[in-house]
Design brief:
Helix content: 55-70%
GO molecular function: metal ion binding; oxidoreductase activity; quinol-cytochrome-c reductase activity
Keywords: Cell membrane, Electron transport, Heme, Iron, Membrane, Metal-binding, Respiratory chain, Translocase, Transmembrane, Transmembrane helix, Transport
Catalytic activity: a quinol + 2 Fe(III)-[cytochrome c](out) = a quinone + 2 Fe(II)-[cytochrome c](out) + 2 H(+)(out)
Largest sheet: 2 strands, antiparallel
Low-confidence stretches: none
Shape: globular
Cofactor: heme
Structural class: mainly alpha
Strand content: 5-15%
Radius of gyration: 30 Å
CATH superfamily of the domain at 39-301: Cytochrome Bc1 Complex, Chain C
CATH class of the domain at 39-301: Mainly Alpha
Subcellular location: Cell membrane
CATH architecture of the domain at 39-301: Up-down Bundle
Strand order of the largest sheet: 1-5
Mean pLDDT: 87
Number of strands: 10
CATH topology of the domain at 39-301: Cytochrome Bc1 Complex, Chain C
Length: about 550
């Protein structure tokens, strides 16, 4: 007779744990999450600008998927017999008719259309402000130059994606914008007509442009942008997040909160907040009411035809440019009224795109930077960025010259001349004023470090003199006001080499030295308080 000892039965692990174990055994998720989920992120309100862009992009994708289920990207003409009575019996393309159906017959269609459009505007506005924050604080410096280019490409691609998107309804307003693009293509010397026939598939407007824009809008550009967003976020994780100077913060650490669970919980709540705000805006403010302007006809143009804000500067440049043209002996026409603005709109933003590499060459600084600058401490860079923004907004005024003239009862010619003159005058003035403001703020910071904060309390001394009481700054405040670095002017180097032979500086070296003097020379930055100056003053030997 044999006996057996019964072993206690081990209970099964929960289903979720078994799934996690299965996935980790094949994908290595646990080790990846363990490394990155506790990554530290600093906490500052300006960092939320990038999150606004990301969440708006997600909202655009979600609403765009819904709209593609009902939109027909066809330029075949039909007679409308839908529910919108004022348009019944009107000939229009299937693209325009399906847009009316989405707006009036699809459940929630108009709200989704409005959310989609408003999210696109907020995405580009967020990108613009986010890029300016990065620019003014020097967050583009090594090792983030490539990430700056990714962000710049995202902004440019977002502009083209927005343009192709609001062109899809084929209404009179968007058709006018497409006509504008056709004129820009025709202005290309020699090959302009060939490019126009290639893009439109024949004479304008042709029958292919809406289907082509549709494919570009929902496949090509979003795919590239999604890849750039992923690459951008990967680099943010890899390089660690920038942070402002403060107590305990150095180029070798990050002071903040872990990604999980604190930052993730805050990010999730912020996503729904952004979604809610966009939904409220979309429900309260009508945008792009295509039913009010009617379908596109090449012989018509809508009153007050304006592009979305991010494309307004292109229209302004063309409206302000005089209608100059040359007819070459070969019979080709050079339309400078369109060609010069188009070249400027490529060159000027392009300068901003390569600026990180220019500043790195100018300073000769090859170190990694994870602490951000205060804009006042880099006055020339800050003034350059402010001048670029002023240039952008001057051209936007030109793009809306007819609307401004109508509502403010001004002469449209006077507005056009203001833009023509302001294009050359306003940016230099903004540069000078911004630089002076930054230098003034630097002097104020220097005075606060040396003498403390003004309290507003007036005290009478024994001999009768009245003085204002100053309060000494804390160590954290002193660190914040003196933590920034100040570059020195780049020297030309020795004029004699190691063999005693005279060396002539190259043009590149002379240019670098001259620009460096303009950036960091006397009168271009206020020397910050040194430790010796502070010790001398606080020891009682100062004034």
């Amino acid at each position: 007779m044999s006996t057996t000892t019964e072993q206690p039965r081990r209970g099964k692990a929960p289903a979720g744990e078994r799934v996690a174990d299965w996935a980790d055994g094949r994908l290595g998720i646990y080790s990846l999450a363990k490394t990155n989920m506790r990554k530290i992120f600093p906490d500052h309100w300006s960092f939320m600008l990038g999150e606004v862009c990301l969440y708006s992009f997600i909202i655009i994708i979600l609403t765009g998927v819904y709209l593609t289920l009902f939109f027909h990207p066809s330029m075949n003409e039909i007679v409308y017999h839908g529910s919108y009575v004022p348009m019944q019996g009107v000939r229009m393309t299937e693209a325009y008719a399906s847009t009316l159906d989405i707006s009036f017959d699809v459940r929630g269609g108009l709200l989704i259309r409005q959310i989609h459009h408003w999210a696109a505007l907020i995405f580009l506005a967020g990108m613009f402000v986010h890029m300016m924050r990065v620019f003014f604080t020097g967050a583009f410096r090594k090792p983030r130059e490539v990430n700056w280019l990714f962000g710049f490409l995202l902004f440019v691609l977002g502009m083209f994606t927005g343009f192709t998107g609001y062109s899809l309804p084929d209404d009179l307003l968007s058709g006018t914008g497409v006509r504008f693009v056709e004129g820009a293509i025709l202005a290309v010397p020699v090959v302009g007509t060939y490019l126009q026939m290639f893009v439109f598939g024949g004479e304008f407007p042709g029958t292919d442009i809406i289907p082509r824009f549709y494919a570009i809008h929902i496949l090509l550009l979003p795919g590239i942008m999604l890849a750039l967003v992923v690459a951008h976020l990967i680099l943010v994780f890899h390089h660690k997040h920038t942070q402002y100077a403060g107590a305990g913060r150095t180029n070798k650490n990050v002071v903040g909160m872990p990604f999980m669970p604190v930052y993730m919980a805050k990010a999730g709540g912020f996503f729904f907040l952004v979604f809610g705000v966009i939904a409220v805006i979309a429900g309260a403010f009508t945008i792009n009411p295509v039913w009010a302007v009617g379908p596109y006809r090449p012989d018509h143009v809508s009153t007050g035809a304006q592009p979305d804000w991010y494309m307004g500067f292109t229209e302004g440049a063309v409206r302000a440019m005089p209608a100059w043209e040359w007819v070459l002996p070969t019979g080709h026409t050079l339309n400078f009224g369109v060609l010069i603005p188009m070249l400027l709109l490529v060159i000027v933003p392009g300068v901003l795109a390569v600026y990180p590499f220019f500043e790195s060459w100018l300073t000769g600084d090859k170190r990694e930077h994870h602490l951000l600058d205060r804009p006042r401490n880099v006055p020339t860079r800050t003034a350059f960025g402010a001048a670029w923004i002023s240039w952008y907004f001057v051209l936007m005024i030109g793009g809306g010259n007819d609307i401004i003239a109508t509502y403010f009862h001004l002469s449209i010619n006077a507005i056009t001349w203001f833009v023509r003159i302001g294009f050359f005058v306003v940016p230099p003035l903004v540069f000078i004023v911004t630089k002076r403001i930054c230098l003034g703020l630097q002097r104020r910071d220097r005075d606060k470090v040396l003498h403390g904060r003004e309290t507003g309390i007036i005290k009478r001394l024994p001999h009768g003199e009245f003085v204002e009481v100053h309060e000494a700054l804390s160590q954290a405040q002193l660190h914040r006001l003196t933590a920034h670095e100040q570059y020195t002017v780049a020297a030309l180097g020795p004029v004699v080499d190691e063999n005693g032979v005279e060396r002539k500086p190259t043009r590149k070296e002379k240019l670098r030295a001259r620009l460096s003097k303009g950036y960091f020379g006397e009168g271009n930055q206020i020397p910050k308080v040194t430790a010796e100056e502070y010790r001398e003053l606080t020891s009682g030997h100062g004034h």
